[in-house]
Write a structure and sequence with these properties.
- This protein has about 200 residues and is α+β, with helices and mostly antiparallel strands.
- The chain contains 5 helices and 10 strands.
- The strands form 3 sheets. A 6-stranded mixed β-sheet has the order 3-4-5-6-7-8. The protein has a two-stranded antiparallel ribbon with strand order 1-2. It has a two-stranded antiparallel sheet with strand order 9-10.
- A hairpin with a 2-residue loop joins strand 3 (about 75-85) and strand 4.
- It is globular, with a radius of gyration of 17 Å.
- The N and C termini lie far apart (about 35 Å).
């Protein structure tokens, strides 16, 4: 059971443009936001993805685009916003949704993705209820699953591991060379995909 210490009732003093996500009313700012407050960096310095994150997200997205049934599913990327409820607004590196039967709005998604895929973490946890990245990953994954996602996949580049959480069955941690069933008829092997594209890190 994950127990979170209430370090602050709400960290509402953080400027909204420095906030990456919000969970249960707690603002989760970008890593490096304190350097912006101190004047050592600009917001643009901290909001972009690293080269590694950007390449992996692009690689995975491109692969999935060629594999999924695009008549029935749609891919979203670019840290697409997801509104779950008041006080909980998330961001996804890659999300697969069932195709909507009504026009797409110029707002956050308000329906759960079938699959959410994340590459690393981008938040500063120092003034939040989360002590570690693991706490945050578990909490965000659970929020997504409780909202209706069927599977959440986290790619952790430092550890070269992939965390897979699903509505049914145990959560698992595997190496990059493991075959991962994303959805029916769609298997991702990140190691093989990187080799094919001559990507090393």
């Amino acid at each position: 059971m994950l127990v979170l210490e209430n370090r602050r009732k709400k960290n509402t003093k953080i400027a909204s443009y420095l906030v990456f996500e919000e969970i249960d009313g707690f603002a989760l700012p970008y890593k490096g936001y304190k350097e912006v407050i101190l004047g050592n960096k600009t917001p643009d310095d901290i909001m972009g993805s690293s080269a590694l994150q950007a390449v992996l997200v692009s690689l995975i997205h491109g692969y999935l685009f060629s594999q999924i049934d695009r008549k029935n599913y749609i891919l979203a990327t670019n840290e697409s916003g997801l509104h779950i409820n008041k006080g909980t607004n998330l961001s996804n590196d890659i999300a697969i949704f069932r195709k909507l039967r009504h026009p797409i709005k110029d707002q956050y998604f308000d329906v759960a993705p079938i699959i959410a895929i994340e590459v690393d973490t981008k938040v500063d946890l120092s003034d939040t209820p989360y002590h570690t990245d693991t706490d945050y990953i578990i909490s965000k994954s659970k929020k997504l699953l409780d909202f209706g996602a069927e599977k959440v996949v986290w790619v952790l580049t430092k550890e070269k591991k992939i965390v897979i959480s699903a509505l049914e069955g145990p959560w698992t941690i595997v190496d990059f060379d493991h075959d991962i069933l994303i959805m029916e008829d769609c298997i991702l092997n990140l190691h093989k995909l990187m080799l094919k594209e001559d990507i090393v890190f």
